[in-house]
Amino acid sequence: MSIKEVIGSVFELIVKVVALVFAVTYIIKAATASYEYGYRVFTEEPVSEGEGRTISVSVEEPVSAKDVGQMLEERGLIRDANLFVIQELLSENHDKIQPGIYDLSTAMTAEEMLEVMSADAPEEDADAEDAQGAGDSSDAGEETP
Q1: The pLDDT of residue 124
Q2: Count of structural domains within the chain
Q3: N or C: less crowded end of the chain, CB within 10 Å?
Q4: Does any domain span residue 85?
């Protein structure tokens, strides 16, 4: 082997090692950022502790989680509207946000805000179930000829 070939092989090896180090560093940073974002989906803290500030917000039809998230972020009730959209998607209150005026606090989590803004939906479901249950129980007491 000539000196040129040895130097070329060493240079090629150095370039490959540097590229590998950059790739591994990028993958580790991307994985860490993804983990932290995913962790925040389930553990996001309220904007402020204690009593916080109460802010009235108006939700109008048509209701979308993205629009509500942007409004809440603009009002200082949440930190990240995109995170709110994911939280709403994974919540048991998915697609249940009702139009109306709500008093929300900076001490509330996104999940608590979703519960407040979708409070009308479970009550309607419970009323419908009560009406069905009442009809079933009255039929059970009747005798058939």
Answers
A1: 39
A2: 1
A3: C
A4: yes
Structural domain including 94 reads 54-121
What's the pTM? 0.69
> Which pLDDT belongs to residue 120?
63
- Binned at pLDDT 50, 70 and 90, residue 142 comes out as very low
* 82 domain residue, yes or no: yes
- pLDDT at residue 127 tops 80: no
Give me the CATH number covering residue 63.
3.30.1490.480
pLDDT at position 144: 46
